[in-house]
From TrEMBL:
The keyword Plastid does not apply. The gene is Stkld1_1. This is Serine/threonine kinase-like domain-containing protein STKLD1. InterPro entries: ARM-like (IPR011989), ARM-type_fold (IPR016024). GO terms for molecular function: ATP binding; protein serine/threonine kinase activity. Keywords: ATP-binding, Kinase, Nucleotide-binding, Serine/threonine-protein kinase, Transferase. The keyword Transferase applies. It comes from the Eukaryota. It catalyses: L-seryl-[protein] + ATP = O-phospho-L-seryl-[protein] + ADP + H(+); L-threonyl-[protein] + ATP = O-phospho-L-threonyl-[protein] + ADP + H(+). It comes from Rhabdornis inornatus. Its EC number is 2.7.11.1.
Amino acid sequence: EFMQSSWDVEEVQAKGIQHLASFVKDGSAFPYLLTCTEVITLAMKTHIDSLDLQVEGCTLLLEILSQALEQGVMMALDESVARCLLHTVRKHSENEEFLSMICTLLMMVSASEVAAENLRKVGIIPDLLSILRRFLHNDKICFSCCAVLWSLAVSENNADQAVLESAVPVTSAVLQNHLQNGVVAEFACSALWALALQGCLTDSDYEPTAALLLDALRMNPERAVLVKNGCLALASLVRLSETAALAILLDSKGSGVELIKDEYHLHFDEPGVAGALCLLMNEMVQYDEVMLDMRSQKMEKLLSEIKLQFPFS
């Protein structure tokens, strides 16, 4: 009530946010803090020129969201909150340190389907792509933005086809630049998978994207989630085009089929990885030439191993 009585007074908003922040460590205050997100974001929007207030508000929202996730509470922030966050992103689009913080916040928010849908509705995707292009070197910004892109791209009712198509080269650039950073590569692979599922890639994308995904698998063989999502992305590409399947067979850095075998043996106890590999192989054998090559590389043996390992799956 104190904050709402004086929206136009920056000091009132700053003091209010600081006072709310003092309750963060008090577990009994958590349910009440959950109801304050709209007040905090509105204060940020009203005083958008004040970077200090943006930082304090964003820090408090991160604390509240972190607690919510720890307690399994899904915070479905509404459209007005999403719009306030977008205003903040646009106003401070050059401030790398602050963007790193707010992109982390957006990533946490987008874990909720409702909140992800609201972010999509207010048109945040072009802003995310712009941030990625400008701060391609920043691994924290890259993995946060790719995670948000993944959440938004898998939306069932996506009306942003043209916007999503423009995300393909940017996401590929993130993966190319951060192949050795497992966390960033994992989220970039996931985003490419979602974009492939939405049919956002063109004929000229299939071969280079397949090669890039194989590079990600080679560089991060121990990361089961990356391997699973990378294989699912490859399966989506192969479903769309034989070019992608041939790119896997004829990759200049070594046989993609041998890589698939190695990845399975590394993660033979992971049903998610085995399922993704089977889906990829199932898509590849739809093409006669590819199937003959897989047969010559004794893929039946691997399939028999998987069948023995997961007889009830």
